[in-house]
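User: For a reading group we're discussing how well predicted structures match intuition. Take Homoserine kinase. Before you show the prediction, I'll give you the sequence so everyone sees exactly what went in.
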Amino acid sequence: MRKKWQITVPGSTANLGPGFDSIGLSLSLYLELTVSLSETWEIIHLSEHLPQDFTIEEHLIYTIAKETAARFNKQLPPCRIEMKSELPFARGLGSSAAAIVAAIELANLVCDLNLTTQDKLNISSQIEGHPDNATASVLGGLTISVLDDEGNVDTIHIKELDASFVVFIPNVELKTSEARKVLPAQFDRGYAVRASANANMLAASLINKDYERIGRYMESDLFHEPFRAKLIPNFDEIHHAAREAGAYGTALSGAGPTVISIIPTPIAEQFVNKMKKLFSEHEILLTRADHQGISVIEIGNDVLA
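Assistant: Thanks. Here is the predicted 3D structure of Homoserine kinase, as structure tokens, for the group to look at:
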């Protein structure tokens, strides 16, 4: 007999404007792994968002799970993994962070690591290099986080947001590494003070659930959006149209190229319908904040053939 688990991890958006590398929000778009112990390694992709041409040894799930096991002096046993994903790759919806979080949980289960939530936050954020997407995928909801020099994460966690979110996904990829290349190496003091103040006001508005201010400060970023906007299809047009249609605010999702709007839930249907007419070349999805974060279900035992 062999155990079988289902690991579900929400995708996420990061930054929400000026909350650069520190604010994350989980979304109800998911990565799902069905895992069982096996005699040999097998990873099966079941979604169009997942590539069909890959090697086990270079697969992100395998490499991160193996690395996690090694941190605790464990050897990762062979597994059969079926993967489904609603997260397009390199679009700014936390696909890599979700995979990292799922891989850590995989190692936790099959190697009996007994990781705490704090362990999962620390390890995933260390691997990502920043805590925004990873903490949101682990905890669900909204997270405001910092990763210190020792690799420890401190997070303020907000579970409930009374709003909906609309993502505008273009048919182009933009890797975070490429999007970081257009950022300035430094800012002058006055500019940095203004940028920091806007980030502080966004964080305070999110904690207070002041949606009008959330929208205002989402659109007041000085850290990255002014420099990345030229890489994003229809960035200015989406901003303007979303505001005209009643959005609280609109920002890049992570490094882009996806753009995300926060909107009042009562206008969700009409907002999406209008945006689909205006931006037919984008995939436009209505989503919400996921409030659970990573979840694991043991789905029974298989007979090992």
